[in-house]
Design a protein that fits this description.
single chain; 111 residues; alpha+beta; 47% helix; elongated
Length: 111
C-alpha cells in the first residue's frame, strides 16, 4: 500500500469528505534522476492537499531534485526532467478518484 502524507490530522471520514468538498485532493509528484546513460523517473508518495494548501509549493522539493539531478542523462534526462517539472508546476498528478475508490474497496472488505 502506498503511503499517504497529510492525513495525520484527519480524524473521521466525515472530516475527509468535508475537506474534499472544499477543494482538497490527493496528488502525486514526479521527479527525475539521471546518471549519464541511465535516467529514472519516479512518482512520490501520495500527498493529501487541503483546500487551503498550495499544491505547487508542496511539490517544490521534487521539482528542485529534478532540476539538479535530472538533466544529465542522454537522451531521456532532459525529456523526463521537463515532463516532471510540468506535472509538478501543474499541481501534481491528481489521483483523488483512485484513492477514494481504493478506500471504498478497503472499507467493503473489512465490513
Amino acid at each position: 500500500m502506498t503511503k499517504i502524507i497529510g492525513l495525520e490530522d484527519i480524524q473521521t471520514s466525515g472530516h475527509l469528505q468535508q475537506e474534499l468538498q472544499q477543494g482538497g485532493k490527493f496528488v502525486m509528484y514526479q521527479y527525475c534522476i539521471s546518471l549519464l546513460i541511465i535516467t529514472f523517473r519516479r512518482s512520490s508518495n501520495i500527498y493529501f492537499i487541503r483546500h487551503e494548501d498550495n499544491a505547487v509549493v508542496k511539490g517544490l522539493p521534487f521539482t528542485l531534485l529534478s532540476l539538479v539531478l535530472g538533466w544529465w542523462g542522454i537522451p531521456w534526462g532532459p525529456i523526463y526532467t521537463i515532463q516532471s517539472i510540468w506535472v509538478n508546476f501543474s499541481g501534481g498528478k491528481d489521483v483523488t478518484q483512485e484513492v477514494l475508490a481504493s478506500m471504498a474497496d478497503a472499507s467493503q472488505k473489512t465490513s
